Amino acid sequence: MAAAILGAMFRFLIRLVLTALALWLATAIVGGITLYGDSTGAKFVSLLLVALIFTLVNTLVKPIVMMVGCALYVLTLGLFGLVVNALMFWLTGWVSEQLSLGFAVDGFWPAFWGAIIVWIAMWVMDLLSPRRQEVD
After folding, report:
1. Domain membership flag for residue 134
2. Tens digit of pLDDT for each residue in 39-96?
3. CA distance 70 to 72
4. Torsion, Cα of 109, 124, 77, 107 (10° steps)
């Protein structure tokens, strides 16, 4: 039981670091997504905290938005999901600014492209990571 809990915590921490790396990649590629900080260590801590916020937003807020916008998903054949992802990324930037974490997203289009970059980076990382064995 304790080993399972430790394993889950370890996977969560690895996922958090990978999300932080994907967010850093978005700041490096997309203009309008800014990471502020005095030192590399401060920026890394900021990215970890922003990754935690990003995870919370996608876990708590995104399902509600998806349920409310269900008809738009159907009408747009799923393309509305891109808009929802951009809005979740933008919300992450706004919350980060309110908490003075040194991460800012300046508008919808930077959020749109940033969300796509984070999605692609996380998809590639998922492909490269080993799968957990399910035990019956």
Report:
1. no
2. 989 999 999 999 999 999 988 998 888 888 888 888 888 888 899 999 999 999 999 9
3. 5
4. -10
**DSSP 3-state assignment of 133?**
coil
How large a percentage of the chain has pLDDT more than 70?
Answer: 96
Domain that holds residue 92: 2-128
Count of CB atoms within 10 A of residue 47's CB? 26
Classify burial at 89, counting beta carbons within 10 Å of its beta carbon; exposed 0-12, middle 13-18, buried 19 or more: buried
> Hey, what are 33's tokens?
């997504």
The total number of structural domains in the chain stands at 1
Give me the amino acid identity at 68.
V
* pLDDT bucket at 132, cuts 50 / 70 / 90: low
Give the side-chain half-sphere CA count within 13 A for 81. 8
